[in-house]
Automatic annotation (TrEMBL), chain A:
Name of the protein: C-type cytochrome biogenesis protein CcsB
The keyword Transmembrane helix appears for this protein: yes
Top-rank taxon, per record: Bacteria
All residue ranges annotated as the Cytochrome c assembly protein domain in the record: 86-297
Keyword Glycosyltransferase appears in the UniProt entry: no
Stored InterPro entries: Cyt_c_assembly, Cyt_c_biogenesis_CcsA, Cyt_c_biogenesis_CcsA/CcmC
From TrEMBL, chain B:
Bilayer disposition of the protein: Multi-pass membrane protein
Organism: Nocardioides oceani
Spans through the membrane: 36-56, 95-113, 186-205, 455-473
Annotated InterPro entries: Cyt_c_bgen_Ccs1/CcsB/ResB (IPR023494), ResB-like_domain (IPR007816)
Keyword Heme: no
Keywords recorded for this protein, A-Z: Cytochrome c-type biogenesis, Membrane, Transmembrane, Transmembrane helix
Entry-linked Pfam families: ResB
Entry protein name: Cytochrome c biogenesis protein ResB
Amino acid sequence: MIFNEQTWAELSNGFVYSAIAVYALAMLMYAAETAGRVAGADTVAARPHARSALLGAFGTSLTVLAFLLNLGGVVARGLAASRVPWGNMYEFVLVCALAAGGAYLAFLSKRPIRAFGVWIVAIVLLALGLAVTVLYAPAGELVPVLNSYWLVIHVAAAIVGGGVFTVGAVATGLFLVRRRQERRMSAGVARDRYAASLPAAQTLEQVAHTAHIFAFPIWTFAVIAGAIWAENSWGRYWGWDPKETWAFITWVFYAAYLHAQSTAGWRGVRASWFALAGYAAFLFNFFGVNLWITGLHSYAGV
Amino acid sequence: MTETEIAKPEETSAGRTSTPPSWGWLRWVWRNLTSMRTAVILLALLALAAIPGSLFPQRNVASDPAAVMQYTQDHPRLAPWLDRLGMFDVYASPWFAAVYVLLLVSMTGCVLPRSRRLWQSVRSAPPAAPRNLARMEDHQSWETADEPAQVLATATAHLRRKRFRVVTEGNEVRAERGYLREVGNLAFHLSLLALLVGIAAGKLIGFEGRVAIAEGGTFANDRSQYDAFTPSAWTDIDDLEPLSFRLEEFDVSYQTSGPNLGQPSEFAARVAYRSGSGEERSTTVKPNHPLNVNETKFFLTGNGYAPLVTVRDGRGEVVFTGPVLFLPLDGNYASDGVIKAPDAQPTQLAFEGLFLPTADVGPQGPYSRFPDALDPQLFLTAYTGDLGLGDGVPQSVFTLDKDQLTQVKVDGQPFSQALSVGETMRLPGGQGTLTFDGVSRFANFQVAYDPGKEITLVAAIVMLMGLTASLGIRRRRIWVRVTPADGGGSRIEVAGYSLTRREPPPAEIADLVTAIRGPVIDASTSKDSPA
Ligand code: HEM
């Protein structure tokens, strides 16, 4: 093959930049759809609705395309470095964006949740934008301590869990917005047309719940795999290193969410705040701990 | 979400007004402690309580042992207060323990009765159908020409084949499935207790230690030989694994080209070790590949340079010779360290300075350009006087106690010199010399013995399996009620009931209906969710 590491690395970058461009287009489409939906939310006119549905379908096609470009970027990156492509923060973010996009599309094939699209795409776009500007690191070998198959397993699980948690967080946030609007509407003070255009609160809550109970065992597995790796490399499976601590905090908040969902009086709105707290802890672990707190896990490569 | 709901238990509590030897209030406390709401609150508290430990430096966290001391120096007023609150040892503090102990008690109190109930429901038949089936989920009813007995038999056979537990009582079929969900949930919660047992075993019997060894140096597994040793309450310190080893050589290689120039690609410590009175064996310890001798494990966790120096005193006698550990300061291994010669006469000698493996001089002064030792140099200043080692207070080998030392000066300026390998620094006035003989490396080993970790691992695996079962499996019931229809044949009612928050698999009832030849239901009513 004429492809060497350098060309793979350049190809990867090309894919990633194209993914950004296509995601940006997808976001425009979705935003236009949302605008149309909002305009039509309290009118019965069918026409703007049909047009905005078409825009939304375009948005989804573009999202699929951008997802595939993102995938291409990740695979090419792996070929450039001859290893799994999640060895530094740039690559983590790339793969996490991929997981979030993939989780969204997987849910979209089962549930009518295109109203999420604009948010998911915005988050993914932001993540990819950060990746190429702030976090970029050239493809290369791993530092020796990362050179372990537990890296492959642990990080892969954490990233997949994170992607699905992202969908859960968006669903939860929209659920809160929509729920408030439904309450107000029954009290006769409905004004929020955006909220009114969203899927029913019950649907949103179900999607959130499904996403969370799917992601939670994966996250649990990621934490356990991390502990096994830590035992392998530092001689103790748990040492309250900041990264470990925040993984624990994330886990415990989500456990609180699952319990609140089974507690009379906490189900729904109150439980949702725990899920959002869990997601905030996950994000902080990803960005805050990597960039601001020093610990044994400082391999961010930035 | 009403406030009355929270207040309710108090209103019903009988214990407050009754006479002292009443168990009423205790029962009230217990009922509240083991309630789901308490579990949620305690979980949230546990998450919040864990946060300060990641923001303040911690005594028992491996990354930087000196961090607490540094923080105390930087914040002299705040630090004592934080210390009193346990902020430098969060995960061993009483308040952190209080939260998780309460949580575990709450959980046990919640889960044991649930286990009993599960056991009872597994031993008894699925419960009777509610009188009004029409209020249940997916209710359907229709009439058919088939005889009731035949319909009941078909439904029973179908549900059995679908792995439901089925009983037929009178004119109804009662079926239930998904008991494993409950089993998983209980296994999950109880394995948390086992997890804690495993952690406790490690914390009570095991130990952790750290030792830095220069190439050629030896180590015997005895407490006195550790740089840091953290025993547990019941560690048998006199009975550590009998073991000795020698660091033969420490190999490193760095990337010499490409975008990650200077990034390490390999660390490998070649060691010769002897277990008990056995033969000497050799092995290579690398990151992620510890040396394991009967569960006492040696992990390679760091490395650095140990310049070889010889110090002669004012009389010309050799008062020190050998490697001195210098601690790396940056990724290119600019390292600092001190050299002490307490035996020097007429005055004790000390040197302090930088080691640069590939020395260069930039606008900010000397720095290291590359982590490998391509052009090693030592930049030293010298001290004379009393090292302060005589008063019995243990001193770090990496710092100088300068209280009774005077810096050697020439013309009022500190005397300093840059040395390449082979060069010698001569102190003014014939107070002594230091020769830079060569460069060797040292390796840092983290040593750990944790007899509880297998328990923890098994508990974690059970926990994960239990959790997956608990979240993935849906426990549900199905009832079929058949009554003779007025004009012959049967009137059939079918309904389901989910015991979990998720809907039962949507096709289940439809399949049952098809099996007993009812109407084929419209596909659009199926609500699916990824399992
Ligand atoms: C040590 C702290 C605890 C942790 C980490 C924990 C974790 C979890 C998790 C992750 C779940 C989700 C699995 C599922 O929904 O089936 C769960 C479920 C459950 N937990 Fe806990 N739990 C703890 C303490 C408790 C306590 C104190 C109680 C009782 C008050 C409790 C009662 C339950 C119940 C009843 C469920 C099933 C909920 C349902 O049916 O959806 N747990 N627990």
